[in-house]
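Dock adenosine-5'-diphosphate; give full complex structure.
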Amino acid sequence: MSSSRICVAVRKRPCDADKDIVTAQSPQCIVNEPKVKYDLTPYTERHNFVFDEVLDEKVGNREVYNRCCRPLIDTLFSNGNATCFAYGQTGSGKTHTMLGHDAEPGLYACAAKDIFTRCKAQNQEVFASFYEIYGRKMFDLLNERAKLVAREDADKVINICGLSEHAVASVDELFNIINKGSAYRAAGMTSANAESSRSHAVLQMEVHEKGSSKTIGRISFIDLAGNERGADTFDCDRKTRMEGAEINKSLLALKECIRALGVGKAHVPFRGSVLTEVLRDSFLGNSRTTMIATISPTSAHCENTLNTLRYTQRVKDLSGGGQAAQVDPSAARVAAAKGGNAAPNNKKAQ
Ligand code: ADP
Ligand code: MG
């Protein structure tokens, strides 16, 4: 993991034999070259990006944790604010990375295991909260989806009023509540899969001295809403357009806040969205952030993948450090390639 306060990683998921069509005409469009590079070769063009960590389809959740997230735990235990985002289009592996499944626990579980071990040795305890940000509204996933509001107190600290906190002492206990909360996330929506990807889910763990309400540190995992530009590119109803606009706004605000954090700017534009407003502390003081951009391997998703990589590269560049990236900005040709109009000089992924 990068030694700076921000680690920017990209994770490619494996091909799904059932859903991803990979042929000579529709090749995998992503290959990774030496260590910190990703090449996107959508038939006609080659795009180079440089990140702190590049995680290919062979890298499991445990290794993602070790390479990108482990130092966040030190920040949490040194009175800090640690944050980990999963960013990418729907179906690219954000929830797989964060939540995982029994055979391959995700970052929530890997982090919780380390946190509980340290808490036990130091006589500390952990409180977990789990909520979602949907449009400009927030809902407590651990309290029957009760509506939440953010308020700034007299000390200029943003509090989420009414957010329930649950004492947890083991990974099993944490997962009991996460599983219940995830069901609420889906149940509150009409079509679970499609619509839960329109909200940001935040799992927060706070460490306290036993018996004290004073927080030692906090870690937040944010499974961001899908970044596909549904609102701009597809026929959709007003509600979906509004959702899309709000998601775009929050992702732009997030980029701006990370930029401010990276360059040590005095003014951080938190107020750009509910997401950045409630995460304000995560960008101030003793804080450390990891962003994991998840991408699909196939050319069918090429356009969204390119968007994801560009955004993430921008975060990387803005966050200070890092090498300059070579980016060919010709999205139009990529779009054309996606539509199959760029056949003559098709190049297979190399
Ligand atoms: P998202 O949350 O970004 O919409 P998911 O995490 O639900 O996407 O992933 C979509 C599908 O791909 C799921 O079936 C998931 O198990 C699978 N998947 C995603 N990433 C990986 C990975 N790195 N390894 C194995 N399977 C993955
Ligand atoms: Mg998901």
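Observed: The longest strand covers residues 124-134.
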